[in-house]
């Protein structure tokens, strides 16, 4: 059986446009959110393999 996991538009290397308006602590979380989402997608793919 073939499984397909679609995960487009993560924009892993795109700069966050509104970063100058955020608290530095929140900014760090926002900047890491795309990478964390990608990690979660990989974890899901491995669990559902």
In short:
GO terms for molecular function: exonuclease activity. The protein has 49 residues and is mainly alpha-helical.
Tell me what the structure shows.
With 49 residues, the protein is mainly α. The protein has one helix and no strands. The mean pLDDT is 87.
Q: Please, what is the average pLDDT? A: 87
Helix vs. strand class: mainly alpha
Strand share of the residues? under 5%
- The geometry reads as elongated
Question: What is the rounded distance between the termini?
Answer: 10 Å
The poorly predicted ranges are none
Per DSSP, the total helix count is 1
Q: What is the total domain count? A: 1
Specify the biggest β-sheet.
none
Radius of gyration (CA) equals 14 Å
Strand tally: 0
Q: What is the share of helical residues?
A: 40-55%
The string of secondary-structure elements, in order, is H
What attributes characterize this protein structure?
DNA repair exonuclease, 1 helix, mainly alpha, nuclease, exonuclease activity, 49 residues, hydrolase, exonuclease, 49% helix, elongated
SSE blueprint:
Layout (H helix, E strand, L loop, with lengths): L23 H24 L2
């Amino acid at each position: 059986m073939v499984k397909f996991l679609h995960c487009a538009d993560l924009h892993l290397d795109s700069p966050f446009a509104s970063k100058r308006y955020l608290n530095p602590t929140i900014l760090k979380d926002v900047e890491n959110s795309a990478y964390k989402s990608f990690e979660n997608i990989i974890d899901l793919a491995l669990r559902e393999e």
